[in-house]
Amino acid sequence: MLKDLCNYYDYLVRMNKIIPHEYSEEKITYVIDLTADGQIHAIFPLNPETSKNGKIIPSIELLPFRTGTVYFPESRPKYFLGLKLEINEAGEIPTFAMTDGGKPSSYIKNFEKCKAHNLQMLEGLHSPVIDAYRNFLSNWNPEAETKNAILLDFVKSHSNAATTNYAFCVDSSMKNLLHEDPALKERWETYFNSDARDTGSNYNGICAVTGKYGPIARTHNSIKLPGCSSASMICCNSNAVEGCGHTQSNNCSVSVEAMEKYTRALQYLTNDSNQKKHLISDKEKETYTVFWSMDPNEEAEDFVLSLLYKETKTGDSTFERVHKLLNSGKVTQNEVNAALTNLADVEFHILEMHRESSRISVRNYTKNTLSDVIYNLAKFQQSLMIQEDSMPLSFKTMTDALLPPVAKKQNLSAKRLLEIQDSAFQNGYLSEALGLMALNKYHTEFYAKDRKWARLNTQLSMIKSWLTNTNKESEELIEMLNKENTNPGYLMGRLMAVADQIQHSAKGKSTLSKDYGRIASKNPVAAMRTVMPKMEYYLKDLKEGSKVYYQKLLDEIMDKMPNHNIPIALYPRDTGNYYVGLAQQRNDFFTKKADVKGIDEDAFVVAEEDGTETE
Predict the structure, then answer these.
(1) How far is CA 345 from each of CA 1, 318, 328, rounded to the nearest angstrom?
(2) Which of 100, 179, 448, 548 has CA atoms 20 to 30 A from the CA of 109?
């Protein structure tokens, strides 16, 4: 996982989507123009543009990473000048050379540190701007420059002279800024990734991520996650992980370079500006899932998240092709590849994290081609199908179906969404916990006065997905009625659907499954003591063709019952099968209506007035 994040960081750098870890963005307002011998020739704005109130707009420049006390190259005037750029009562720039105690001031100390560090870094390097900067540092004497005319004029006309940052050029050439010099940048990158730099590491070893020898990170950069304080992913602060005489993070064998890369890549994925494309978060549970790929246009991320949230991508032919596939039921890997075209082989990564206190733990990490991800999603959608023409369900639709319809559910929604997502990406079927949750919701809402069929159908689809993974081979659930299914709950559901249909054919209404289904789904024997006599009574009022048809159907169902008897009790898994059997037998009545001859046509119409329609 860490190696993949490092590779993603390298990819982001190549695509100019992230700053290389050796650099940082800094605001530079002015440029100090040096002569070849290092004298200050002029000072002028780096960016010629000004704001509406006339203030100079700083330019955002890529400078070597600001680390340590002094920087290379230095951009702060109190360091590279050793002066505080203000004018005293005498009309001079004060030197602050000595303190009241007769010791060198902080400005002089800062300049000496800057001079020593920068000259050391420049050793052996040559270019016009580098030579000019070296001459400047070597010859500059802060105490002798208190009346420097160029500095005095500049300070008088610029109130921010002491507090802003500066760049350097030579002979007024803006094309040759010091911090952009190729030789300087190469020297800096070599230094930054070597053990010469003070990285805080106290141990050199082989990095477990890159395989390179170098300084091992003693501490790891924190990651700022949405809605909470920063936290670190790597922690070895325990005796249990210590070995070979190493303590704490020396045991994790992650180099400073790899640490910088993976933390920056992870921070990019969780940044506010990237959350919509890369992140799903549950702030209540402090669980976060990030997605990424090596797709330059991030179409793969857009594509998967659009499927999750059921966002419309008008005019996107790829999106429409895949949606059509998901709606078609069974699909093959080749069909998915053809629909995705150039996105099929894009490597797609899914990282799920959990935050505890100041630490981040990894819940799950998977990587696969986008084709495989979509294929798994297609299999998941197939497991949700109650009938052949079922529409694909988005993760958000399923999430909403598990929550109270009117509750404030933002945090719970994110929690359920992550759990559904786990089921789809990892298993291809809904988990048992979510399946039982959907069953409880369905069992309650199915018998309510005001039934919401869209919610009920979604809940039933989720129940079916769970059972598809747990049922035995003889109890297989498919996208239509399975007459070979021997699960007692499934058979009881079919039996109640037949009872409803017989009642409607005889009396024009169908209320048995609603009136007695709550009991039949848990204690079938108790329910059938009342339902069976009613069915026999209604059968007497039917035409002979309908009577024969239904009697054969009842016999076929009872023949598959254990010992040809109604079961005494149904356990939760069988109760779920009951509701699937009930729905699929109802749907089968509609699909068989046109195919059956000699039977009363009304026998295949379920009355809507009693709320038993099969939408």
Answers:
(1) 19, 14, 22
(2) 179
H-type alpha helices, 570-610:
572-592
Please, which residues have CB within 8 angstroms of residue 483's CB and are 6 or more apart in sequence? 556
> Which among 295, 291, 299 has a CA at the least distance from the CA of 268?
291
State phi, psi for 320 to the nearest 5 degrees.
-65, -40
C-alpha–C-alpha distance, residues 564 and 502, integer Å: 21
Structure tokens at 155: 């300070």
- Residue closest to 402 by CA, chosen among 435, 429, 441, 431: 441
Q: Which DSSP helix (H) or strand (E) runs through 287?
A: strand 287-293
Q: Is the dihedral of CA 42, 45, 48, 52 positive or negative?
A: negative
**pLDDT value at residue 615:** 35
> Could you give the CA distance from residue 248 to residue 250 in angstroms, rounded to a whole number?
6
Query: In this structure, what are the phi and psi dihedrals at residue 30, rounded to the nearest 5 degrees?
Result: -125, 160
Q: Is the pLDDT of residue 132 over 90?
A: yes
Residue 612: per-residue pLDDT: 41
Confidence band for 187, pLDDT divided at 50, 70 and 90: very high
What are residue 257's phi and psi, to 5 degrees? -65, -50
- pLDDT above 80 (res 20): yes
Q: Within 395-485, where are the H helices? A: 395-401, 410-422, 432-445, 453-470
> What contacts 401, CB < 8 A, 6 or more positions away?
438, 441, 455, 458, 459, 462
Total Cβ atoms within 10 A of residue 511: 17
Q: Tokens 């709550």 map to which residue?
A: 518
Sequence-distant (6+) residues with CB within 8 A of 412 are 284, 403
* Longest CA–CA separation in the chain, Å: 120
Mean predicted confidence (pLDDT) in 548-561: 92
- Round to the nearest angstrom and report the end-to-end CA distance of the chain: 45
CA-nearest of 158, 127, 184 to 44 is: 158
> Could you read off the pLDDT of 241-288 as tens digits, one per residue?
555 656 666 667 888 888 889 988 988 888 766 666 677 666 655 677
Q: Are 19 and 66 in contact (CB under 8 A)?
A: no
Closest by Cα among 395, 398, 399, 423 to 411: 399
Q: For 76-104, how does the pLDDT look when each residue is reduced to its tens digit (9 = 90+)?
A: 998 999 888 888 777 777 765 544 455 55
pLDDT over threshold 90, residue 328: no
Q: How many CA atoms lie within 13 A of 411 on its CB side?
A: 5
Cβ atoms of 254 and 2 closer than 8 Å: yes
- Amino acid identity for residue 283 in this structure: K
CA-CA-CA-CA torsion for 595, 598, 599, 602, nearest 10 degrees? 80
Angle at 535 between CA 530 and CA 539, to 5 degrees: 155
